[in-house]
Specification:
The chain is an alpha/beta fold. It has two domains: 190 residues, HUPs (Rossmann fold), CATH 3.40.50.620; 53 residues, no CATH class. The chain has nine helices and eight strands. It is globular.
């Protein structure tokens, strides 16, 4: 495709790995390619590289998204953590890329998991990601036997030291030999890409970014445990009722979402709410 860019002109082809990991099958031997999508720019770039870089046929690619607030049609579940724009954005992404979208969720929402455990997730006990994302995907994939699946996810080395140290390829936990004969290979195809390259690639292919980037730097839960104070302050003002509900949850649980050096900090203190002018 023809692209006009602010920086260097690069198509998705230029982000293809020079060599695929030796443990992988030739790409055409996979029955399905799953791209885990959050709605964030990295997930868009991953899908673009799969489609236009590796030239994987569209009918083999599925965009797979895991909601953390559970079934969107179950009105007993408060939509507390997922951005309200994400469902529509994923529909847009699916339409723009002409790729099938699968949306999954766990029976219990993130709020229900938090209440069940009596605590908020943290960087050392990140049960939000494990229960609501990783396990939900693995459970869904384990339904399928006699299949060869390649999972693509959009982690990048630039994001953190932890991510940089993780391998570009591994066998997924849902991989099973023997009777199940289920291959699930997990590749991080944009691991080496930079944020600027990701944004540029999305622009080059005419894909608008999720609106949340106006307020936060990463497209994750609107009240993500990793939000900075400034980000949390912005989301608190965007969703005042949810914010009040979240602060109430802290009181009910006797546990705060944020702590530093072993000392708990209420959400209110974290964003220095008492210093935000009302008018
Ligand atoms: S975005 Fe943040 S809060 Fe949401 S699941 Fe991921 S780490 Fe947990």
């Amino acid at each position: 495709m023809s692209v006009s860019v602010m920086g260097e002109k690069r198509g998705a082809e230029s982000f293809v790995l020079p060599e695929l990991p030796s443990e992988m099958l030739p790409l055409h031997e996979y029955d399905e390619i799953h791209v885990n999508v959050s709605g964030g720019a990295d997930s868009v770039a991953t899908a673009l590289v799969a489609l236009h870089g590796y030239k994987i046929p569209k009918d083999k690619i599925k965009l797979v998204h895991m909601r953390v607030d559970g079934n969107p049609n179950d009105h007993t579940k408060r939509q507390l953590f997922d951005w309200p724009q994400t469902d529509a954005y994923l529909e847009y992404m699916s339409k723009m890329l002409d790729l099938q979208l699968i949306v999954l969720w766990d029976d219990l929402s993130l709020e229900e998991r938090i209440r069940e455990r009596g605590m908020f997730p943290s960087s050392t006990c990140r049960f939000c990601t494990s229960y609501l994302k990783r396990d939900v995907y693995a459970k869904w994939v384990r339904q399928f036997d006699d299949v060869k699946i390649l999972l693509l996810t959009g982690e990048r080395s630039e994001e953190s030291k932890e991510r940089a140290e993780k391998p570009v390829f591994k066998l997924h936990t849902a991989h099973a030999t023997g009777r199940k004969n289920r291959t699930v290979h997990w590749l991080k195809p944009i691991k080496a890409m930079l944020k600027t390259e990701v944004r540029q690639l999305c622009a080059d292919y005419g894909i608008e970014l999720h609106p949340c980037y106006q307020w936060v730097s990463r497209c994750s839960c609107k009240f993500c445990i990793f939000n900075t104070s400034a980000e949390m302050s912005r989301t608190s003002q965007l969703f005042p009722e949810d914010w009040a509900y979240l602060k109430q949850m802290e009181e009910e649980l006797g546990h705060t979402m944020k702590s530093k050096d072993g000392i708990s900090h209420s959400l209110s203190a974290f964003i220095k709410e008492d210093q935000i002018p009302l008018f």
